[in-house]
Here is the input.
Amino acid sequence: MGSLRSLRWAAGSYFRLFERDASSSLRLTRNSDLKRINGFCTKPQESPKAPPYTYSHRVPLHKPTHWERKILIWSGRFKKEDEIPETVSFEMLDAAKNKIRVKISYVMIALTVAGCILMVIEGKKAVRRNESLTSLNLEKKARLREEAAMKAKTE
Here is the structure.
């Protein structure tokens, strides 16, 4: 038990010593012009020069293609193609595309439901005529056998 306690004390003192060294090197980098990296000194960095261009915080604009113009009209963002400005923001274009995606998915859902209802109606009609897949397959096989027999007679 005593050796475990001494081991924990040694580990704690080692980490405290390491923290002290790390914090002193951090203080050096903050307070002086020289940066200390792995024991080497480097020259102080020159102040960054202003870039030759000026960056404005405006939203980047995009010139819409013919297809994107149609999307902007279909989404209801603009009434006519004449109303669409020369450049539009990417956010406006993304919003219009998302709106079209939602509309298309609604149409596909409606077509799927309509198709299911149509198949149920056709199935009920087939039941009334006493048609089933089994009877249709048996009739088709009988027809094929008759055709094969006719072909065998002619040869």
